[in-house]
């Protein structure tokens, strides 16, 4: 069911069933720098990234399941400097397309306090150019998560957020 639903959005986003480095994030927390933290995460994270994506920082659709905090997210989270510059350049160059996306979606994530070097401070989307992440999300209720139509709701949320994923994917020179 999922493969068919996501395949209608883009055939280049995949679920990887490997037990390590697959779509399901590991359950263990990194406790090296946390003296008293629990060793396990309290949520499940599943990412469906671009087939060409090498890590979790590529364009992605994401499902987060946690008590009182379930959501579907999409976009590109913590891209490296090269990818970040490519996305920002695409926004600066294609303001009409970006305006259509921004009219429908709210960006989330970290942002710079000042405009990035090399970008016009008076650009109409200067606040977006300050973003360090290009992510949006759709909340899911626990009733939705526990229902038989979860995959339909997940696919619907992915369709809603797909313009952002398409824009970032193309900005990185990948096929959508």
Structure explained in plain terms:
Helix content is 35%, strand content 16%. It is of the alpha+beta class. It has one domain: 2-Layer Sandwich (BirA Bifunctional Protein, domain 2), CATH 3.30.930. Strands 1-2-3-4-5 form a 5-stranded antiparallel sheet. Helix 1 packs parallel to helix 6 and helix 3 packs antiparallel against helix 6.
Nearest-integer average pLDDT: 89
Percentage of β-strand residues: 15-25%
Helix percentage range: 25-40%
CATH class: Alpha Beta
Spatial arrangement of strands, main beta sheet = 1-2-3-4-5
- Level-2 CATH architecture: 2-Layer Sandwich
Give the overall silhouette: globular
Task: Describe the SSE topology.
Layout: H1 2-9, E1 13-14, E2 44-50, E3 60-65, E4 70-76, H2 81-93, H3 95-104, H4 126-129, E5 134-140, H5 142-145, H6 150-171
Antiparallel strand pairs: 1-2, 2-3, 3-4, 4-5
Distinctive features:
globular; alpha+beta; BirA Bifunctional Protein, domain 2; 176 residues
Give a short summary of the structure.
With 176 residues, this protein is α+β, with helices and mostly antiparallel strands. It has helices at 2-9, 81-93, 95-104, 126-129, 142-145, 150-171; strands at residues 13-14, 44-50, 60-65, 70-76, 134-140. A five-stranded antiparallel beta sheet has the order 1-2-3-4-5.
């Amino acid at each position: 069911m999922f493969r068919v639903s996501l395949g209608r959005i883009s055939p280049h986003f995949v679920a990887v069933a490997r037990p390590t480095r697959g779509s399901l994030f590991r359950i263990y927390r990194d406790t090296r720098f946390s003296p008293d933290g629990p060793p396990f995460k309290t949520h499940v994270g599943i990412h469906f990234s671009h087939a060409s994506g090498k890590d979790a920082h590529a364009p992605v659709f994401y499902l987060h399941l946690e008590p009182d905090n379930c959501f579907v997210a999409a976009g590109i989270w913590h891209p490296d400097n090269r990818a970040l510059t490519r996305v920002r350049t695409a926004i600066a160059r294609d303001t009409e397309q970006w305006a259509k996306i921004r009219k429908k979606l709210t960006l989330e994530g970290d942002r710079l306090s000042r405009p990035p070097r090399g970008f016009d401070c008076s650009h109409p989307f200067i606040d977006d150019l300050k973003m360090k992440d290009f992510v949006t999300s759709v909340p899911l209720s626990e009733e939705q998560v526990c229902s038989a139509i979860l995959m339909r709701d997940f696919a619907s949320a992915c369709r809603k957020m797909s313009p952002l994923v398409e824009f970032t994917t193309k900005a990185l020179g990948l096929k959508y």
